[in-house]
Amino acid sequence: MAEDLYEHPDVYDLACCSFRNLQEEPDGLHRLFQKFALIPVRSVLELGCGPAPNAGEFVIREYNYIGLDICSSMLEYCRRKHAALGSAAQFILADMRHFSLPLPVQAVVIIAGSFLAGDADDALAILNSVARALVPGGLVVFDSCIQCPRTDPMESHCYELHVGARRLSVMTGPRQFDVARQTVDYELFVAMNERGQRTQYRSIDHFQLFYPQEFRLLVERSGQYEFLDWWDGWDLTHRLGGVGPMKRPILALRRLNSH
Fold this sequence. Notes:
Blueprint: E1 3-4, H1 9-17, H2 24-36, E2 43-47, H3 55-60, E3 64-69, H4 72-81, E4 89-93, E5 105-110, H5 120-133, E6 134-143, E7 157-163, E8 166-178, E9 183-194, E10 197-208, H6 212-222, E11 225-232, E12 249-255
Helix pairs in contact: 5-6
């Protein structure tokens, strides 16, 4: 029987984060903060941070980093992994739908598709929680959180990773897709061989797929943000649109003044 992948943060980190460009994402976010924030950005909150692979890169760029996740074992792993960052990196156990911070931040980010809203009510709850945590004039950036109508959500991916003595075979893909509700049960399966010892891990996330205009309508319904723009990747000259499939949709909102 496969073990719960999310309860093994070191394996999750290898399987999902070891190949990511840990400079590209903070660099892209830094450009967005400089271009669109109406206030200096000092603190960044990442929702669904997982193993927080970018925490060190944010601190290098002189941001205070706060990682929020729903899994306590993942956050304990983060605290050990990033202990050298000291008070510049903090980690909070909370549900992104319902959380509060002792002090507001100037930017909130959701990276690598971690916007796991089960339905529109969940999505609005996340937007409302983020608004409470965000200073007016601050930004919220969504990375890979909307879908392309032409992209088949049933597509699966397989890849191999060799990290030290560990060999990982990783498979990702939907187990079940509800067309009417636009919801998917998305599975991440890892088979690891470490010096001849074989272990299997699995996680399944349930969430709704949001297409661009649907997501924009949710933002308008929340009434707390100004829609800024969206891009395909971190190059701000590549606006989202056209006939080709999206590769990495990036969406930026700015917090309106409270009334």
